[in-house]
């Protein structure tokens, strides 16, 4: 991609990626519930009771499923990946062409493997049966079993979907029987995993096969041959990760007492298949954001400046102390990383500089004064992990007329004094400039501001949550609407109903309540970190 369109897309990707899930895990920019799931918008249900046929119809190689043909689809296809979507969901719309491309490739490869889709807003019976609360949600149905579908855990692009399905459709591992085939297998790729097991049908081997089904971007081999145990210096069941970088090989011996845990092995393989220090690029972004490492330490530099390139050596030395806990990433401000700078409130002139970001709550940290030695970096990272460093909060400068407009314009620096004014009832819209749902409700919010501009005790306000951060409140999706009632106690009510002027007004006139009263949350005057992962939200696991 080129030009302003590409820059806008990547500002979205990183304001969402370094905002927080691969999709499915992190979907939900446009409104989420307390568990981080997308909240379905209030729309009239389009019931289609006339559909009674169980005929299977396709759109772009994707089966169109509903309650009358779902059972037939399960009976005809041994592997059926179903997307539950909402027509208004922007993430579903972006997934659609990738899903269709994957469906076409899989359809041509096997008659037993198919992709289908369900409009969860119209097919409420299916939505309720499978507990669909977020969009898009993907579930895999195997051998006609509709009671225990498997949640999709792969990348949200065509290649990721195809790999994930192929790994489940065929053998997940290659059987290695002698040293020659093992050596050829290991040398053929940059990263491979080999399981050495005395019993290929035992519990440890079964956990290994399960992990192989999850880590679909890596080739898996397995062996029980004594000569291979001897050739690779092993005497007990062991999983070996071979890689053509860093230390070259990492072993994970099977604990004789505890056995092998598939989920933990999956995590370890994903962590150790990453370079100790990652270069941020189009090719590595999905791996960076899909690793589920809770913290990132970023070195921003200009790779065209020789002196700055030299900083990578000490950065790498510091990284070795935190593998699996903190992912160290180099971001080139003159290259692919330029589009993320605004998310961090930076310009290319700020390089070289360091930033630490906690993925659970989007908090960013920086040194009082940048120091790039391995010791300084190591000490800073440990201090952040120990809670000894306060977060660095972004804030714009308030416009000169911020409080004279019908809709007051808040920034990080002015939020507290306005939102928690005990004499005012303050209704705030937290938005992102690029968010389509925010743009759709902009006119209604302006009209609401006009309607209440002469009310002394009601304030209608808005804040760009991508450029302003708050110490005791993390915004989880866009738009998010919060009502701060007058009086003591720092109370907050999240508005979750229809986004139109009349419903907004009813909410305000009733003191922040509707027939179904939203929960009241009392905010502490001190920071209350929210256990949310916002930094990988829209990236999925790759752009």
Write the layout of secondary structure elements.
Elements: H1 3-17, E1 57-59, E2 62-64, H2 70-76, E3 79-85, H3 90-109, E4 113-119, H4 124-129, E5 137-142, E6 150-151, H5 158-169, E7 174-175, H6 179-187, E8 191-196, H7 203-214, E9 219-223, H8 226-231, E10 238-243, E11 249-253, H9 262-272, E12 277-279, H10 285-290, E13 295-301, H11 306-309, H12 312-319, E14 326-332, E15 353-358, E16 363-365, H13 374-385, E17 408-410, H14 415-419, E18 425-431, H15 436-452, E19 458-464, E20 480-484, E21 491-495, H16 501-509, E22 520-522
Helix pairs in contact: 3-5, 7-9, 12-13
Quaternary structure classification: single chain
Largest sheet: 6 strands, mixed
Percentage of residues in DSSP E strands: 15-25%
Mean pLDDT: 85
**Any low-confidence stretches, pLDDT <50, length ≥5?**
1-17, 19-49, 517-543
Helix/sheet category: alpha/beta
Give the end-to-end Cα distance, rounded to a whole number of Å. Answer: 11 Å
Helical residue percent? 25-40%
The order of strands across the largest sheet is 1-2-4-3-5-6
Radius of gyration: 26 Å
Textual characterization of the structure:
- The chain is an alpha/beta fold and 543 residues long.
- Helices cover 29% and strands 20% of the residues.
- Strands 1-2-4-3-5-6 form a 6-stranded mixed beta sheet, covered by helices on one side. A 6-stranded mixed beta sheet has the order 17-19-18-20-21-22.
- Strand 15 (353-358) and strand 16 (363-365) form a beta hairpin.
- Helix 3 (90-109) crosses helix 5 (158-169) and helix 7 packs across helix 9 (262-272).
- Mean pLDDT is 85; it is low at 1-17, 19-49 and 517-543.
């Amino acid at each position: 991609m080129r030009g302003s369109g590409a820059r806008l897309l990547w500002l979205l990707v990183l304001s969402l990626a370094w905002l927080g899930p691969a999709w499915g895990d992190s979907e939900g920019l446009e409104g989420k519930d307390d568990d981080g799931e997308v909240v379905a918008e209030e729309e009239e249900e389009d019931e289609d009771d006339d559909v009674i046929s169980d005929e299977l119809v396709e759109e772009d190689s994707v089966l169109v499923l509903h309650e009358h043909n779902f059972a037939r689809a399960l009976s005809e296809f041994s592997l059926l990946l179903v997307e539950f979507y909402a027509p208004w969901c922007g993430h579903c719309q972006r997934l659609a062409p990738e899903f269709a491309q994957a469906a076409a490739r899989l359809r041509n490869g096997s008659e037993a493997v198919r992709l289908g889709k369900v409009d969860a807003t119209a097919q409420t019976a299916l939505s309720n049966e499978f507990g669909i609360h977020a969009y898009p949600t993907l579930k895999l149905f195997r051998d006609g079993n509709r009671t225990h579908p498997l949640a999709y855990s792969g990348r949200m692009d065509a290649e990721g979907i195809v790999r994930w399905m192929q790994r489940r459709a065929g053998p997940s591992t290659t059987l290695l029987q002698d040293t020659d085939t093992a050596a050829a297998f290991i040398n053929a790729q940059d990263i491979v995993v080999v399981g050495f097991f005395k019993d290929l049908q035992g519990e440890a081997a079964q956990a290994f096969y399960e992990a192989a089904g999850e880590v679909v971007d890596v080739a898996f081999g397995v062996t029980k041959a004594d000569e291979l145990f001897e050739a690779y210096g092993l005497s007990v069941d062991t999983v070996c990760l071979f890689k053509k970088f860093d230390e070259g090989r990492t072993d994970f011996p099977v604990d004789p007492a505890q056995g092998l845990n598939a989920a933990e092995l999956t995590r370890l393989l994903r962590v150790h298949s990453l370079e100790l220090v990652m270069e941020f690029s189009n090719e590595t972004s999905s791996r960076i954001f899909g690793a589920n490492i809770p913290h990132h330490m970023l070195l921003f530099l200009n790779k065209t400046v020789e002196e700055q390139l030299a900083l990578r050596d000490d950065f790498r030395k510091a990284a070795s102390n935190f593998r699996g806990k903190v992912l160290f990433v180099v971001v080139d401000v003159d290259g692919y990383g330029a589009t993320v700078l605004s998310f961090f409130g930076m310009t290319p002139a700020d390089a070289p500089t360091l930033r630490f970001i906690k993925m659970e709550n989007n908090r960013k940290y920086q040194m009082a004064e940048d120091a790039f030695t391995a010791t300084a970096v190591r000490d800073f990272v440990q201090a952040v992990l120990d809670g000894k460093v306060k977060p660095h909060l972004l804030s714009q400068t308030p416009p000169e007329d911020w409080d004279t407009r019908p809709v007051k314009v808040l920034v990080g620096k002015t939020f507290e004094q306005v939102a928690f004014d005990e004499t005012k009832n303050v209704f705030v819209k937290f938005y992102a400039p690029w968010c389509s749902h925010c743009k759709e409700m902009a006119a209604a919010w302006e009209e609401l501001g006009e309607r209440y501009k002469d009310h002394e005790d009601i304030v209608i306000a808005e804040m760009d949550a991508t450029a302003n951060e708050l110490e005791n409140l993390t915004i989880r999706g866009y738009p998010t609407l919060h009502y701060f009632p007058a009086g003591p106690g720092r109370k907050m009510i999240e508005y979750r109903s229809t986004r139109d002027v009349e419903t907004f007004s009813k909410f305000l006139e009733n003191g922040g309540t509707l027939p179904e009263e939203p929960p009241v949350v009392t905010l502490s005057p001190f920071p209350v970190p929210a256990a949310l992962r916002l930094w990988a939200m829209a990236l999925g696991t790759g752009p």
